[in-house]
Specification:
By secondary structure, this protein is an alpha/beta fold. It is built from eleven helices and ten strands. The protein folds into two domains: 51 residues, no CATH class; 204 residues, Rossmann fold (3-Layer(aba) Sandwich), CATH 3.40.50. The radius of gyration is 19 Å and the shape is globular.
Length: 272
């Protein structure tokens, strides 16, 4: 291992390790790109792909992100953007859970939905995308429907959960299971011009308070649909919230909800 460290120090430009040198080291030492990235970050070297993060996210923070395991429940409108941004952020392990395939009505807004992908599983498209844009990130595709029957098994070892579902009863089950596993959950929901973001920490009951009068199967997305921009905005806010929690910076969005109105460009905070 010391030989690898010496090798990386010699290759680094100050404290930056280029992608070319990272891949070269992985091949030379017969290691995965993830292993090389972990060791580089532990040495205080920053993979150069993250250099535009460094004024906001330190090398130490980048290592925390790499050591993190995030589960994304739902890989469609919200989930596709969430997975894309977590991958580019450098979260080391992402589990994507979704039973569905791409259909034609997904083409207007779902990031990984293309004519070529119609009929293909959403988790497989996400896995292919992650491997293409950041092969140092481990993506685990799970093509099942999340429920209280399999939830504990699916979320074992997860540091944080991101809710990208479109079913109110299932997201309430997700909130309960996340709490029992001591994992924070970042909730997002969208419909038409509107969206909302909430963080729920273990011991809190925010999701139940929000949806206690709305236990129908689908949220407003079913009736209002979604244009291309709404999931992108809400997913980005979810990822920002997830990043803050994983690196321990900023003020989390717990016990309050942000309601986003893109039609009138208004954001309202509601406390619980």
């Amino acid at each position: 291992m010391e030989k690898l460290r010496d090798f990386l120090r010699a290759l680094a430009d100050d404290d930056l390790l280029s992608w070319h040198h990272q891949t070269f080291a992985a091949k030379y030492f017969t290691m995965s790109l993830a292993q090389v990235e972990r060791i580089a970050l532990e040495m205080g070297l920053l993979p150069a792909r993250y250099q535009r993060n460094r004024k906001t996210i330190s090398v130490k923070d980048q290592l925390s992100l790499f050591r993190s395991h995030v589960a994304v429940i739902g890989c469609g409108g919200l989930g596709g953007y969430v997975i894309e941004e977590l991958t580019r952020l450098g979260v080391g392990r992402i589990t994507g859970i979704d039973p569905d395939i791409f259909e034609e009505h997904n083409l207007n807004r779902q990031l990984y939905s293309t004519p070529e992908n119609l009929g293909n599983p959403k988790v497989e498209a996400a896995a292919a995308r992650v491997a293409k844009i950041n092969p140092a990130v481990t993506f685990v595709p799970v093509r099942v429907a999340f429920s209280k029957l399999n939830g504990f098994e699916l979320l074992q070892g997860v540091d944080l959960v991101i809710d990208a579902l479109d079913s109110i009863p299932v997201r309430l089950e997700l909130a309960e299971i996340s709490a029992e596993l001591n994992a924070p959950m970042v909730h997002g929901a969208i419909g038409g011009w509107y969206g909302q973001v909430v963080t729920q920490f273990p011991g809190e009951n925010t999701l139940r308070k929000i949806y206690n009068r709305s236990l129908q199967s689908k949220g407003i997305e079913k009736g209002l649909g979604n244009p291309s921009f709404t999931p992108a905005v809400v997913a980005s806010m979810q990822v920002a919230e997830a990043c803050k929690i994983l690196i321990g910076h900023g003020t989390p969005l717990n016990n309050r909800k942000l309601h986003i109105n893109l039609l009138d460009m208004e954001v309202e905070e509601i406390r619980y």
